[in-house]
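Hey Z.,

So I finally got round to the tryptophanyl-5'AMP thing we talked about over coffee. Here's the setup:
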Amino acid sequence: MAKRETLFSGIQPTNQTHIGNYIGALKQWVELQSSNNCLFCIVDLHAITVPQNPEKLREDIRSTAATYLAVGLDPKKCTIFVQSDVPEHAELGWIMGTVARMSELERMTQFKDKAKKQKENVSVGLFTYPALMSADILLYDTTIVPVGEDQMQHVELARTLARRFNTQFGETFNVPHAVIQKTGARIMSLDDPKTKMSKSGTLANAIFLSDAPDVITRKIMRAVTDSGKGISFDPTKKPAISNLMTIFHHVTGDSMEKIEQDFGNKGYGDFKKALAEATVEYLTPIRKKREMYMKDQKELDRILKSGAETAHKKALKKIVTIRKNMGLGR
Ligand code: TYM
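And the result:
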């Protein structure tokens, strides 16, 4: 039997979760939860690195929790919790900020992208964000971090900081590694296959897990396609169709070869119609379950409270060792 790994991953509770988050992250989590020790976090402290409305943030935290449950994360198998409910994240985030170098954080592409959007209002928190993310991961002796491709650079930094800390203060942290999907680690925008599907992009760029069937169908039918014709998987020459094929593969389980065989001679329109139908069929039960969990706030609360207690016990034990190794406290 394969060794039980310790997994940590999280999603920012900003706006709705989209099919990129699902394919890149959540789908892997569900597959991995039964045979590993898993912690899945709703990273609200990360969300506040850009301006948030408190009412909306509160709603988005609950909605993200409901989404975790709706896609099939089972609180009996994994720990689901909100980051700010476990204060050790913030403490270790501060510590990691003292271990990280300015030059390392300046190189982070997510910071550079997000800073551009914030213009002159870039918070210090947005800059030190990867130190907090390293803390999230290292606090639980994590061995595996299942993420989308865009988070690989951050996980690499967590590895660097873990090694640096261990060299300076003695063996304290496990050095984790990222795992990404073979296909679908980077789902692209429907309206621009050169950019990543994102929560903060145009409404048409993403299929949100909360989208109604007619909205999903409209977005897919209007998705940008490549010049030429033919359904074949070639992300370089046919980025738009290859992206749609990746989504098709994930919602039907069909291999790329089968998709090529089934749709090879058909037009883009026929393929999109089939994709829209398959996506609606796949996402409808998830949307309904999410709505059901949103109505049962008491149950959501119970799950998040219990998850926070489990995570807090582990985090507290670890932070005591970290403080001791660094010479902090009395
Ligand atoms: P976030 O909230 O931006 O995204 C959540 C997860 O979804 C993946 N993802 C994608 N995968 C495929 N295609 C896409 N277009 C796409 N867009 C997003 C992300 O890679 C991620 O796995 N910094 C993290 C949250 C975080 C975290 C952590 C993750 C905080 N602490 C510790 C892992 C471990 C973030 O902003 O993810």
